[in-house]
Design a protein that fits this description.
4 copies of one chain form a homotetramer. In chain A, 41% of the residues lie in helices and 26% in strands. With 364 residues, chain A is α+β, with helices and mostly antiparallel strands. The first copy, chain A, has 2 domains: 217 residues, 3-hydroxy-3-methylglutaryl-coenzyme A Reductase, Chain A, domain 2, CATH 3.90.770.10; 94 residues, Alpha-Beta Plaits, CATH 3.30.70. In chain A, strands 1, 2, 3, 4, 5, 6, 7, 8 and 9 form a 9-stranded mixed beta sheet that branches. In chain A, helix 2 packs across helix 12 and helix 4 packs across helix 5. Chain A starts with 10 loop residues before the first helix and ends with a helix. Chains C and D meet through helix 1, strand 1, helix 2, strand 3 and helix 5 of C and helix 1, strand 1, helix 2, strand 3 and helix 5 of D.
C-alpha cells in the first residue's frame, strides 16, 4: 500500500509508467550542526528547487550553526498520523449515542488497526458532532512511514468495522476533512498531525553582528511586526513565519516526500528573543509530515539522498524518520533566520538579488 | 531579475551551479476539453509527482470533459500580484497622516513602478494601520510573469521613494506578511493575489451514473458534509475542497512554477449542485499563482512543457499565462471531481488503491 | 469568589456600589417545547434586548415547536471550563521536559484543584510548546457555575504549585489566551469549553409551508450558500450561522450570564436537510457558556428568571445549568429558523420590519 | 426604520410592549482624558455589567490617563457600514458578466441608495464569485446611526433594482454573511465595517512603575506571548487582545448599542512597545460599531448616558457618533492596560479578586 490517499485510479491507467522525469535543480547545502533528541552531528541537506537563491540563504544559516557549540537544537515533542471518517446519523442524539459506543470499543478498534498493517498503532480516537454528522478522527503511530496511506487503509478497516457494529449510522465519507490533509487548518496544530518539532539556536551578539549584519533587538522586533502582526492582519491561521514553505518544498522534493504537505507544514511559528544582545531564535513546526519509507522513497535519487542524510541506518522503527524530521526543522531554521536577518536591513534583499542576477546573467 | 523574492544569497554561493537534478516522475494526462475566456480546445497536461495515482484520477475527469460539448469552462475573473511593505511611525496618528499622504501620491507611485520594470503596472495601493505600524499593500499587473520578483523589485523602489518623501516614517520591512506569499491567509482571496479563476462543468445524469458511478445528489451532499462542514470544523480558513494541493503541485513542478505557492493556491472552494439529476460542479481558485516567463521557465523540460501546453505562442502580454491559469484550474477540477465521486462510494477508494498496489508490485 | 476573571480592581473602587441600573427591555417569549437529555417540557424564555423584533422572531419558532410532538430536541454532548497558564522556559527542550513532568503529576494536580474549590474537578491537562513557551490548558468540571472564576482560582493554585515543583520554568501569565475566553478561536470547539449542545427539530412539509412560508429545499440551499459559503468567504473561523449572537445576548442578559461570552458562543453551525420535503434543522453550539450560580445570579430579576425557567430546582449538581444550556440552545434554534425562513423569500424581511415600524410609530 | 436587521416579526407580536426591564448594574467611571481627531477633553464613561470588577479595572487606566498631558489619543481612520446580498447565476461565467454590469451601474446604485434613506450614501460596491454564486457587498456611510438597518433597507432597494435590471441572475439572500454582522471573520478588518480606531498612550517609566507596578518590558513581552502567540495558537482570527469584549459589552449596554456587535468588535490588536523604559501602548479596534441615533437610543437611561457623554451636541452629521467611537476605544484601552499590567505580576489578579470578595461579602 504505497499510493497516495486522496486520489482514485482506474486500473488501466494505474499501471502506466511515467513519460519522463521533470528535473528539479538540486544542491547539497551545509553542513548544518544539529543536536537534540532526534539527531546529532553535522549533515549536508539536499534542496531541490527552481528558486536557487534559496541555496545561499540556507547556507548562511548552516555556516552560523557550526560556529556555535550546540548548533541548532531540535526537540521533537510529538508524532502521529491521522485520518477522520464521516458518519451520518438521523439526528444528533443518535450521533452522540454512536460516539459513546465507538469510544467504548477502543480496545477492539486497536485490534482492527493492527490487522490492517503491522506498523500502524491506533493511539487515540476523537470525535465531533455537528447536527446529525459524526466526525471520528483516528490518530495512529506509523513507524518510519509518513503514514498517509497506512492511516487511510486503517481508517477503511475501522470504518467498515464501525458500520457493521454500531447501530443507526451510515457511511458519510472515508475522509471528512477533519484529518486534515494538505489544507491549512487549526486542528492539526491543536490535536497533532505529523511530527511536532522545535528547532532553536542561541547566537552570541558577536555573531549576530558579524555574520548576520544585524542585532538581536532588530530581529525580535521584525518578528513581532512582520510574522506575528502582519500575518495576523492578513487573516492567517496558526501561522507566523516568513517562508517555511520554501525550505520544506525543497527538502521534500529531494527526499521523496509528498510535497503537497507543505500546505500544513507551512503553518509554524518563528520566535525571536533579544537576550542581552544575544539572539535566541526558534522555528516551531507543529505539522511536519515526513517519512523514510513508502511511496517514492525507493527512487534512486531519493534513496541516495536519504542514505546520505543518515536516514537509512539500522535503527529502531521510527528513528530514521525522526532524524529526517529534525534535519528538516533545522533546515527551515537556517533559511528563516537568514531571510529575517536580511529583512532587518533596508535594501539588503534587493542588493543580494541583483548580485545574483549579474553573476548568473539571468534576464530581468 | 529572476530570483526568488524571499531569500537572501551571499555572492560566493550565488554562482554555484546545481549538483544534480532530482527527477520527478511525470506523465502527460488527457486531453482535457476546455472553454472559457482564457483558453479553448483540447489539451494534455503534464503532472510531475511522486504520488502517481494522481494520474489516473485526473485522467478520469479529463475523459469526462470530452464527452460534454463545452467541456470544462474556465472563467478568469481577476489577476494581480502583490507585495506589502511595513512602515513604522511613532504613533497611529502619524501613521494615518502618512497613509493619506501615500494615497495622494498614487500617480507618482505608478511612475516609480514603471521605472522599476517595463512589465509592472501599479494597480492599487491599500493600507492598514495597527498601533504605530503602517502596512502598505501594492497591487500590480505583471504581464506573463507570476510576478513575485517584479513586485518585490517594484516594492523596493516604492519603499525607497516613500522613505524619502513621506515624513516621520521609518523602514519596517520590505515584506510585512500582509502580501501574502506562501502562507494561508484570508487577505489574498478577499483582496486578490494571482489569478482568480472558476472552472465548472455540467454533467448529464447519464454520465454521472455511467462514468462516475454516483449521483449528483450524493456528490452535492458529500461536498457540503466534507468540504464545507468538515473543513470548517477543522478550523480551515477560506477553503473547502478535497485535494487541490495535489493537482497544483504536480502541474506547478512540471511547468517550472514556484510550487511553494500551492500553500495559498490550495485555498479554494468546491461547489456541487444537483440540478434535476444532472451535476453542476465547480472549483474556484481565488489565489492561483502562475507564470510563463521568469525564474525556472527556461529550463528545457519546463520550456517544452509550456510549449506543448500552447503557452509559448505569440499573444498579447499576459495571454499565455492566462491560458496556463485556465488549464491549471481545469486540471484541478478533473482531480477534484474524480476523488469526490470516489468518496461517495464506500470502499471504492481503497479498492482502487489495492488494484494499483497489485499491478505495480508495491510493498505494503 | 464571584468576580470576573479578567479584570483587576483596586480596593477602594471595589467596594463602590452601582450608580444605577441600565434597564434592558425584556419579554418572556414562548413557550418552547423541549425534549432531550438535559431538559423536557414547555418553557417560556426571557429575552432582554434593545432589538425588540427579536421577540416575534423567536416566538414564531417557539409556536412551531409546539406543533411537533418532540418539539426541539437538545442533546448535550460535553461540558468543561478551561483556563490556560503560560510558563516560560529557557528553551524548547526544557519546556518539553517540564511538560512531561507536569503530565506525570496529574493526580497531584487534581488534589490541588480540589483544595481550591469544593466544586472544581480537574478533568484534563493539555499543553502546547512554541519555542521556549509552554502553554498549559487545564480543563475542569465546575458544577452549576459557568466556572470562569472557579477555573481562574484553580489555575492560580495550580500555577503556584507548578512554579514550586517543576524546575527551570518561570511565570509567564495566569492566562495565556489559549483558554480561550471571549475571543473567537478554533480551540474551544476542538478541545471543548462550556457546554457543547445541538438543538434539532424535524418539521413536516405542511408546517414548513404553512408556518414558515417556505420549503425545506429552499432553507437547505440558503444554509449552504449563506451560512456555509458566505461565512467561509468572509474568512470566518469555525462558524456558520445567521445570528446566534442575537439570541444568546438576550437570554444571557436576562439570566445574569457574563454576556461577553457571546463572542465564542456565536461560533456555531446551522445545518438544514431536505428530507423528502420535510425539514431537518439543527443548531450546534460547541462553546455555550452558562451558569445558574455565581456572579450576578443573585440579583432579584436574574433570580426570578432562573426560577421561572426551572433552573432553581433541587437537582444533582450541574443539572440546573444543563437545563439552562438546553433552553438556550433551543431558543437559538427558534430565532435562527425564523430568520432563515424569512430570508428565503425576497422582501419578507423588510416588509415585516416596515409593519413594526408603523405599528410602533418608531422614527426613521 | 429602527428595527434590528436580522430578525423577522409577526404583526401581532410586534406591537407587544416589554414585560419588564432587566436592570444591569451601572457605574460611571473616570474621568478619562482623551485627545485625537474625534474627541477631546475629560469624560466619565458608563459601564453596565454584571462583572463589577470591571469598574475599578477601567478606573485605574482612567486615572493614569489624567497624569499624562495628551491622555489617551484616539485616531479614527475609517468608517462605513456594510451589507452583502447574495445573487445566484446559472454559472460562474454569467455571474462574472453580472458583476461587471453591476459595477458599471455604480452611479445609478448611488441614486437608489439615496432614495432609500436621506442619511445613507453608497461608498463602494465589491463582489466575490464562487462557482455560480455572486456575493455583492455594499459599503455605506450612515451619518450618526450605526447603520445596520439603514444598510439593510438600502440593500433591499439595491437588490430589487439589480434583480430588475441585471439579466440572468436570481435572488439568493438579502444577507449573504459576507457583510459580516455579529460573526468573527477576517473581512471586516480587511475591507472595513464600523469605525476603525486606534487608542494609544505614552506612559513615562515612573508611572509604569508607580501606578501599574510593572515595567514596559514586561508588558511588551506579555503582549507578545499572550495576546499575539497565545491567541494565534488558539486558532484566533485577526485578534490579539486580553479582553476587549468586556469593556465593549459594558459601554454598549449603557449607551443603547446593539451589543451583539461585540462579537466582531472583540477582534482587535493590542500593541505594546518598550521605549527606553517608557511604555507605548495601543489598542486598535478595526470593527467598532456604534451609533447615537436609531434603535434603543431614545430610552431615557440611554438618552441620559449619551447626553452626559457629550454625544447629543449640535454637530455635523456623524460627529456625535465619532466622539462615541473615540470614547469607546479609550475605555477599551483603560481596561486592557489595567489587566495586562496585573497579569505581569504573579498572583496580583487573584489577590485583587480576593480583596473584593471579602469587602463585598460575596458568596463563593
Amino acid at each position: 500500500m504505497t499510493s497516495q490517499p486522496t486520489t482514485v485510479p482506474t486500473p488501466a491507467a494505474a499501471t502506466a509508467p511515467p513519460d519522463y522525469a521533470t528535473p528539479i535543480p538540486t544542491r547539497w547545502v551545509g553542513p548544518l550542526r544539529i543536536t537534540g533528541n532526534a539527531a546529532a552531528g553535522e549533515v549536508h541537506v539536499p534542496l531541490a528547487t527552481y528558486e536557487t537563491p534559496l541555496w545561499p540563504s540556507v547556507a548562511r544559516g548552516a555556516r552560523l550553526s557550526r560556529l556555535i557549540e550546540d548548533g541548532i537544537k531540535v526537540t521533537l515533542v510529538d508524532e502521529r498520523m491521522t485520518r477522520s471518517v464521516l458518519l451520518e446519523a438521523p439526528d444528533a442524539e443518535t450521533a452522540y449515542t454512536a460516539a459513546l459506543a465507538i469510544h467504548a470499543r477502543t480496545t477492539e478498534l486497536r485490534e482492527v488497526t493492527r490487522r490492517s498493517s503491522r506498523f500502524a498503532e491506533l493511539l487515540t480516537v476523537r470525535h465531533e458532532i455537528t447536527g446529525p454528522l459524526l466526525f471520528v478522527r483516528f490518530e495512529f503511530s506509523t513507524g518510519d512511514a509518513s503514514g498517509h496511506n497506512m492511516a487511510t487503509l486503517a481508517a477503511d478497516h475501522l470504518l467498515t468495522h464501525l458500520l457493521t457494529h454500531i447501530p443507526d449510522i451510515s457511511y458519510g465519507s472515508i475522509s471528512g476533512n477533519y484529518c486534515t490533509d494538505k489544507k491549512a487548518t487549526a486542528i492539526n496544530g491543536i490535536l497533532g498531525r505529523g511530527k511536532n518539532a522545535t528547532a532553536e539556536i542561541h547566537i552570541p551578539q558577536s555573531l549576530v553582528t558579524g555574520r548576520l549584519r544585524t542585532t538581536a533587538a532588530k530581529i525580535a522586533r521584525l518578528n513581532v511586526h512582520k510574522n506575528l502582526i502582519g500575518t495576523l492582519l492578513a487573516g492567517g491561521i496558526r501561522s507566523a513565519n516568513a517562508h517555511y514553505a520554501n525550505m520544506l518544498l525543497a527538502l521534500y522534493l529531494a527526499t521523496g516526500q509528498d510535497a503537497a504537505n507543505i500546505v500544513e507544514g507551512s503553518q509554524g511559528v518563528t520566535y525571536a528573543d533579544d537576550r542581552d544582545g544575544d539572539l535566541y531564535f526558534s522555528c516551531t513546526l507543529p505539522n511536519l509530515i515526513v517519512g523514510t519509507i513508502g511511496n517514492g522513497k525507493t527512487l534512486p535519487s531519493v534513496d541516495d539522498a536519504l542514505t546520505r542524510l543518515g536516514c537509512r541506518e539500522d535503527r529502531p522503527s521510527g528513528d530514521n524518520t525522526r532524524r529526517l524530521a529534525a534535519i528538516t526543522a533545522a533546515t527551515v531554521l537556517c533559511g528563516e533566520l537568514s531571510l529575517m536577518a536580511a529583512q532587518t536591513n533596508p535594501g539588503e534583499l534587493m542588493q543580494a538579488h541583483t548580485r545574483i542576477e549579474r553573476s548568473t546573467g539571468s534576464p530581468a
